[in-house]
Amino acid sequence: MSDRPNLDKLIIGTREQSEDCDCVVCAPYDGINLGLPDNLTGTCHKCGCAVQFRPSSPKKPPRMCWDCMLIELAKHEDDGDEDAFMITPKTLEEISEYLNNLNKKKSH
Fold it and tell me: What are the tens digits of pLDDT across the range 34-72?
């Protein structure tokens, strides 16, 4: 199994659709460094580690860290289940802008 999701399975969904997702996959949080300055923080519902996520992330689904998500994906693959990954247009816009700015800084 790859340690990265297959981005060919990335679905750009609405906020309403995202509220029905199984979980919100979150970035790790070390207690100091946020990936984006306005990220929110919380804990993984599986292992309890600290995570960070976008303010526009779905509110209803439980939050899950990357490591726990990989374990869940492996279970689904063993069962022959097909997984898909959803991102809201707002989060896609914010992350794309952040990465573009990061690339601009690196090129100077």
Answer: 988 999 999 999 999 999 999 988 899 899 998 888 888
Best CA proximity match to 3, nearest among 86, 85, 92, 66 = 66
54: tokens are 């976008």
- 9 HSE (CA, 13 A, CB side): 7
For 49, the token pair is 């580690």
Q: What would you measure as the largest C-alpha separation in the chain, in angstroms?
A: 48
Q: Please tell me the distance from the alpha carbon of residue 36 to that of residue 27, in angstroms, as a whole number.
A: 11
**What is the four-CA torsion angle of 77, 82, 86, 92, rounded to 10 degrees?**
70
CA–CA dist 79, 81 (Å, integer): 5
Q: What is the pTM of this model?
A: 0.70
Helix (H) or strand (E) holding 104: helix 89-107
With cut-offs at 50, 70 and 90, classify the pLDDT of residue 101: confident
The CA-to-CA distance between both ends of the chain, in Å, stands at 37
